[in-house]
Give the backbone structure.
Amino acid sequence: MAEIEHYTLNFGPQHPAAHGVLRMILEMDGEVIERADPHIGLLHRATEKLAEIKPYNQSIGYMDRLDYVSMMCNEHAYVLAIEKLLKIQVPERAQYIRVMFAEITRILNHLMWLGAHGLDVGAMTMFLYCFRDREPLMDAYEAVSGTRMHATYFRPGGVYRDLPDSMPQYDKSPWRNDKKLKSLNENRQGSLLDFIWDFTETFPAAVDEYESLLTENRIWKQRLVGIGVVSPERAFQLGFTGPMLRGSGVAWDLRKKQPYDVYAKMDFDIPVGRNGDSYDRYLVRVEEMRQSNRIIRQCIEWLKKNEGPVIVDDHKITPPSRADVKENMESLIHHFKHFTEGYCVPEGEAYAAVEHPKGEFGIYLLSDGANKPYRLKIRAPGFAHMAAMNEMSKGHMLADVVAIIGTMDVVFGEIDR
Amino acid sequence: MANAFSKLKESVNQHFKGQLISSITALGELTIEVEIKDLVGILKQLRDNDEFLFEQLIDIAGVDYLTYGLDEWATNEASAEGFERGRQEQPKSQWQKARYAVVYHLLSVTLNQRLRVRVFVEEDSMLVPSVVDLWNGANWFEREAFDLFGILFDGHPDLRRLLTDYGFIGHPFRKDFPMIGELEMRYDEEKQQCIYEPVTIEERILVPRVIR
């Protein structure tokens, strides 16, 4: 028999475990990876270039579509960068709303990650459980912004509108009887805050449920422990941030270290791993869900007690109210200017970073004083993680590549931009 | 925080005296501009010196200053002529420095501080020394800047295109690269293959760029 040493395997771009459109050229020795060369860019839409021909506010929607499982966190970084350049102070209520939704988004993201990662490694049930629990959060998105995913809810200077007082109800239909209808609408009788509060009451038990399925599961541990180990030194070298860095034992979290909005007032802990392997990163993310739950509860408590504006009252930057537009000439002009030309941002440059569910998501904004960004650079956390694919998968088996892709929590919307 | 920031500012200015083209503080961020020949030396010190300890390279961004400060709509003539016609002749940008720049964002986890380093790139050489040896994570960031702006990183181990299509021609994030691209692709029934043709769509900009 002829001796074959190395061979090359094409992985993706249409592979169910490729999390979108990752194509990898794997050089293999038997079933062991010698070299992995990811080919990215199949989802490249030139978001940064598109933003250059649009007024600032029209690109908020593009931010949702970067990392399309943590929509509002992307918006958050973008509006923070604009606010930095405009030097505006955001009303406190808006800051609380933004923090609350950023944490809701973190849970959404981690649930998506846990479900997909479980599915990749062979735990089908996880996928169903996680999607079941994403549903109320999606409803919260819908109630506040009108869309279940691409919310476009944050604005420079605050948020688009205040939280609604009532939740939409399920209608009668031939497929559900009165009893079922009543149980579906049971937690929708109050405001959006009541609805989210109800979620936070039950969510920790749901996380326990996932953990009872996975944490001590023999197969789960066999697939994750010791896979894709990254030392803290290497994590720094490779530009890792977020859970990928914390999994290696570095307690670095922008929400604590460089707090933005009202994170400084929140009480929460940063989980860190010890061994820097996929299993530790799993534990870190699961604990982060519990911590996010805590933050959401603190926000709800504050928001229930405190009323106030949710966007700055400067109509050079934010639109005036509809009622004003119909009665007041000045407001009509502001409205027209806002939605046609937008606002000019003073010349300068700013970098704003948020602790995105995947790591540090940064927006580098360069303005020459126009109503459009001169240059927008998006620092996507997944990009740096994906770049380390070769190093992380070297010496592992083919099946582990899938676990490593899963542990990186890659979403190609942000990597390819 | 404010104290640490002024300390960083001071020690950067002190340490690299004579090597900095400029050192700007704006919006609570420190930006230093350095010359290409000093770049690697300064970055290495920024990484290793106990005063800086920038162990992470967060981002590398290419910038093309070709149309910096240009607007598409001379405001006072707009009502008569409209901006589309105004776009016909492009005035020259007032930009004095080199056309391209590379911007490095550094982060120190130990000292909790950030720094931005900018280096301007000569248009006739387009060459910048690679920092892959200092921070391995720079690999893809540099490939991206090469792909999108055509900036060449000297000493990079594997400078290939990253985000654009296989066989792509041009550097799409340069300001003189059209927004709609240059080629479009479709499947040709007769030839039974994908073919590339010049783009047939027209560029539309709905909102003019204005500077007030």
